[in-house]
Amino acid sequence: MSDPWQECLEHCVEVATQAGKVIREALKSDIAVMHKSSQVDLVTETDQRVERLIISSIKAKFPTHSFIGEESVAAGAPSVLTDDPTWIIDPIDGTTNFVHGFPFVCVSIGFTVKKQIEFGVVYSCIEDKMYTARKGKGAFCNGVPIKVSGQEDLSQCLVLTEVCFKKDPHRFDAMMANLRSVLTIPVHGIRSPGSAAVNMCLVASGAADAYYHAGIHCWDMAGGAAVVTEAGGVVTDVSGGPFDLMSRRLIAASSRAVAERLTRHITEFNVGRDDADGS
Ligand code: LIP
Hints:
The structure is a single chain. The chain has 279 residues and is an alpha+beta fold. The protein has 2 domains: 6-145, Fructose-1,6-Bisphosphatase, Chain A, domain 1; 154-277, D-Maltodextrin-Binding Protein, domain 2 (3-Layer(aba) Sandwich), CATH 3.40.190.80. It has 8 helices and 14 strands. The protein has a 7-stranded mixed β-sheet, with helices on both faces. It has a 5-stranded mixed β-sheet with strand order 11-10-12-14-13, sandwiched between helices. Helix 5 (169-183) links the parallel strand 10 (158-160) and strand 11 (189-191). The longest helix is centred in the N-terminal third of the chain and has 21 residues, at 6-26. The radius of gyration is 17 Å and the shape is globular. It binds L-MYO-inositol-1-phosphate (LIP). Residues 70, 90, 93-95, 162, 164, 194-196, 216, 220 line the site of L-MYO-inositol-1-phosphate. L-MYO-inositol-1-phosphate is lined by residues 70, 90, 93-95, 162, 164, 194-196, 216, 220.
């Protein structure tokens, strides 16, 4: 039987390639920075332009499909996952990196049907790495199959997470306590590349062994979660329960053993849900 979503995946790769070109061009000129929820929540005209480009291109081809896009949601669009074929889009994942020319900047797109991720595309456009994953068909970087490290011992892991200050001192304290708890296991090290989707692709390709984060969004997670799973990794909630795309939290790991041990070192804190107003 032919794959009903193959055409969507092919179009997704095309549009991510175009979006990546726009982002690389924009890096050559001055970048005007605007702020969203706080002084450290950055957005640029390029984020907004690239999201419009992606959505208009997909809408022209698949007019009945639904969208959840980071900048559309910031502008007031609903963030509700339905059973419809839905494109979940982060036009620039790693906006702070983009603003500083730090080279982990990607276009991240996940595609769901009946709330299940069917495929993910992450284009790390400065590195020129196109990660793709179709459910049940493996994960690839520039067409070459990728695999997680398979590491099962957390003490042998290189772990990724993100460190940032988002106003709420309780969340900051919990984040620092978690960092301390994981670092003192001890693990081989913690890195913070600045893009959730790139972090997941690093785990998927075996360059890192685990990534944990609470406080990101469905558009940061959808594309990369597909890549990790199809590369043989596991994606779970930070509590160890099943991964929930709208929960704003995840662990992506090289093995279930690593994910489970990591949950024991992470104290959960409330980050709300992406669909809190809608379902
Ligand atoms: C960013 C993430 C980053 C995280 C930030 C933010 P954006 O996405 O990828 O890892 O630390 O909180 O969510 O805003 O650049 O698309």
